[in-house]
Amino acid sequence: MKKTLICTFTLLASLVLYAQTGMLLDESNNYKEVSTNIEYSNGRIFTLGATVTNLILREFNENLEVVVQKNYEIGYPFLVNMGMSFKTYDDYMIWGGKQDVHGIIAKISYDLDTIWTKRYNVDGYVTIYDTHVQSGDNIYMIGRARIPPMPGELWWEVEDEFSILKINSNGDSLYSIINNFHDRSDVFMCAKMISANRILLSGSKMHPWDVQVAMTDTLGSIVWEQTLGGDLFDSFSYMAVLDTTAIVCYFECYGTFTDVEWMQDQQTTDSLALTSINIETGEINWTKKHFTAKTARVTSCKELIDGNFIITGIYLIDEQTQLRSFAMKFNANGDEIWKQDYAYSNSYLGYGNELYDIEELDSGELVLIGYYWDQEGLQKTWILKTNALGEPINLALPDESKEFSVYPNPVSDVLTVKSVNNEPIEHINIYDIQGKQVARETLNSSNQIDFSKHQSGLYIIQIHTENGVVSKTVVKE
User: Fold this and answer.
1) How far apart are alpha carbons 190 and 178 in whole angstroms?
2) Are residues 418 and 392 part of one domain?
């Protein structure tokens, strides 16, 4: 049965708003960080990461050096990875997520200072803000609202309902809407403002899972909708809008199984699919399928300056949980222009890696962001810069240890590796950008190794000591 709940903040007490000021943290804190968002605006690169309780905001220059980093305590429990959105607008940024049963939103200046942070709750629903769009001075926060699970219920057994929260530039709620379109959970991860009162959405329906694309008005009423793929699982979708066409990108899952089976083994065979849809009518123009992989997922989709678009994603490369990240560029007809894999292995970056977002610089170069697990099981950020063909130029690990210095970098012949605390270095493993070990070295008496024998490119050096392993990035000229 279709349900609609409209709550206006000025009239109803059922929507409770809490305000708080961002609390700056000691940057030396150890944390498990998930980085999922990157934005490029006015020639500046901004990233958003999160731990279970904290936000990590960074500005990088185009050499991938951290210009500013600020950490803010949001509070536990805080949802990361899924259910977190971050976008730049003309002179500020908006972040949305979840804390306890509240949706939480922060307005952030370009100096990475919080202008305000506010929490929202509607009639006992747990609210999660997955994405948002701007129209004039107002922001539409798009997300999910759910009744908290009953004892014995699992999260995927609880129904998510479509939610829109409209706020003004001060974070005041103008109205909040909860709408269940068809008695199935709605999860929209991507939103585009098409006109002053039209929002284009892509995401998933659950139980069973399908890719869903919908045009709604700003009050959440459906103008048109399309269901794609059919009987999919883990079918997150993102889209690019090119003129009057939306191209929706997702993986189709082959085979049927229960939610519990998926949670146990996570082994499926998926095919990358692109579907072109007329924005005005919702009619499908075409669907094209590309490569097949195991347990794959699209993680972002962005329009490019040249009228084409690019997607990022992840998939398994073995029978365990070793992940490979990829980026693919397509033209407006859905034809592949290029594909690049970023096969970081646990041999030097720890356990797996996940690529979550991509941005195009004014130069046409690309910056990608994701996270990995280090040798101690901590999640940490990586940020990669590539040329216009997706070929790596520079890789930065902003959480890497400062206890070792590596110079010169870039290097042409001899590389010096020193411990700030004079900790003995047992040996050094050298890996290329694809994760292949190309050398194992021992430092000479001058703390140097010969790098002249390696080809030009990007390398990871893994420094082994009796206390553990530290990774550093090096560019060979």
Assistant:
1) 18
2) no
Q: Which of 396, 413, 437 is the last residue of a domain?
A: 396
Q: Listing from the earlier edge strand, what are the strands of the sheet with 3-7?
A: 3-7, 173-180, 160-167, 138-146, 126-135
- Note down the domain range covering 465: 405-476
Instruction: Provide the CB-side half-sphere exposure for 248 (13 A, CA).
Output: 36
CA angle centred on 134, ends 133 and 137, rounded to 5°: 155
Q: Specify whether the CB–CB gap between 252 and 232 falls below 8 A.
A: yes
Rounded distance, CA 368 to CA 333, Å?
24
Query: What pLDDT is attached to residue 183?
Result: 55
CA distance 106 to 117: 4
Q: How many CB atoms lie within 10 A of CB 419?
A: 16
383: domain CATH number? 2.130.10.10
Q: Give pLDDT, residue 459.
A: 87
Return the HEC string of 2-32. Answer: CEEEEECCCCCCCEEEEEECCEECCCCCCCC
> Could you tell me which of 134, 136, 127, 173 has the C-alpha nearest to residue 19?
173
pTM summary value: 0.81
Number of domains in the chain: 2
Q: Determine the Cα angle at 163 with ends 354 and 32, to 5°.
A: 30
The mean pLDDT values, 10 residues at a time, for the chain of 477 residues are: 29 32 36 74 89 83 89 61 74 82 85 89 71 90 74 62 89 85 68 93 74 90 84 71 95 57 54 94 95 84 96 77 84 96 54 80 94 70 91 81 83 90 88 82 90 89 83 85
- Checking DSSP bridges between strand 44-50 and strand 54-60, what pairing results, if any? antiparallel
Number of alpha carbons in the 13 Å side-chain half-sphere of residue 123: 13
Nearest alpha-carbon partner for 349 in 323, 313, 331, 330: 323
Pairing of strands 222-232, 209-217: antiparallel
For residues 116 and 145, membership in a common domain is answered with yes
The closest of 330, 313, 314 to 322, measured between CA atoms, is: 314
Q: Using an 8 Å Cβ cutoff, are 94 and 86 in contact?
A: yes
The three-class DSSP label of residue 410 is coil
Tokens 């107002």 correspond to what residue? 138
Asked whether the beta carbons of 46 and 92 are under 8 A apart, the reply is no
Q: Are 454 and 323 in a shared domain? A: no
Q: How many CB atoms lie within 10 A of CB 98?
A: 24
Quickly list DSSP for 181-231. SSSS-EEEEEEEEEETTEEEEEEEETTTEEEEEEEEETTS-EEEEEEEEEE
CA distance 181 to 143: 14
Per the CB < 8 A criterion, the answer to whether 65 and 19 are in contact is no
